[in-house]
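Dock flavin-adenine dinucleotide; give full complex structure.
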Amino acid sequence: MSPVTETDEHKALRSAVAALGKRYGREYMTKVVAEGGHPDELWSEAGKLGYLGVNLPEEYGGGGGGIAELSIVLEELGAAGCPLLMLVVSPAICGTVIARFGTEEQKRQWLPGLSDGTRTMAFGITEPDAGSNSHRITTTARRDGTDWVLNGRKVFISGVDIADATLIVGRTEDARTGSLKPCLFIVPRDTEGFGRRQIDMELASAEKQFELTLDEVRLPADALVGGGPSHAFGSGGEDAGLLQLFAGLNPERVMTAAFAIGMGRFALARAVEYARDRTVWKAPIGAHQAIAHPLAQAHIELELARLMMQKAAFLYDSGDDIAAGEAANMAKYAAGEACVRAVDQAVHTLGGNGLTREFGLASLITAARVSRIAPVSREMILNYVSHQTLGLPKSY
Ligand SMILES: Cc1cc2nc3c(=O)[nH]c(=O)nc-3n(C[C@H](O)[C@H](O)[C@H](O)COP(=O)(O)OP(=O)(O)OC[C@H]3O[C@@H](n4cnc5c(N)ncnc54)[C@H](O)[C@@H]3O)c2cc1C
């Protein structure tokens, strides 16, 4: 595979997912959101068709592909108006981390379900007092015999109510100060002491965000990704956390780019359709360059963002984690910006109708901003490129 041209398999996957998305579409998602439900029918059908676990290993029920394939799935569902946000966390972050670093038992326990969508896993790293600075997270894991005991708080964690478990990023207690020494724990939803409160978000989204409290959450040794104490200094365990974390965060950025590009394409398509017909003078509004050019610009920017996303996915899938990191950050940045501008221009193109519920674009103004903020903000990516790529000094 090349990052620039798609294989026939990729094209076939793209059109098959697009066809599924078209059968559900924006109306389905709007109804689900209005009823406060979840897109269970779409999730389960996509799971049965093998789309949700397309990136996970075949021996555990996945499709044997990579993030390139999973990003196609999310982009096409988004372009059809029915994106599945949990794809970003469940198969992309959690599935990848478990497939790459989990023990044999963890793989058997989780991967088949994450692959066919019968099980889902949320991902929790963000904390109220750390925010963009993950080095400051204070969710700590303490040993008690062979058990682990977790204490801490998380915020803005998506889909905890529907996920069977949450992959919680903590740190070992003796590493409370100094640089981050993370460790990842699988915390089942109903574990004692694992509390959640839904955050009242101004977002029309089926997936809700939660504030989590971990109050003396007791977990068995095998809840630690990569294995318990006997593996601690081997390929898994406590000391392998940083590697595991980055293995999950790059797919997350690629998938956020896919989410943004899909949404941008959806909004742009609605605007183009409208601009072709709507006539208030002699010609359709799409003939006025003030309307046409920004739409053309939005299309170019989305295509460019996709190119960088494909490069990032290609690098990640070929095992080059370092190069994938830079490309995934740039792809997320480009896609977030392209999405925000495409949505803004789409709303503007529809005039008053851009703000009606009927045309369904106004709510995307808020939704589009998510890809600028999460999982890493625009500014933190600019910081990364300033320091890592350009070698400029740090201000913080
Ligand atoms: C819809 C939604 C879903 C989410 N889902 C999840 C999830 O499932 N799991 C999870 O762990 N997290 C999730 N998040 C959290 C998300 O990753 C964080 O919101 C994000 O990392 C930013 O952190 P913060 O909100 O604390 O902002 P802050 O870190 O407080 O930043 C606030 C502003 O300051 C800027 N800023 C901060 N530091 C600097 C600096 N050094 N230089 C320049 N500017 C700076 C930022 O760019 C930003 O604009 C979600 C967030 C949203 C909105």
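Observed: The chain has three domains: 8-120, 122-237, 243-389.
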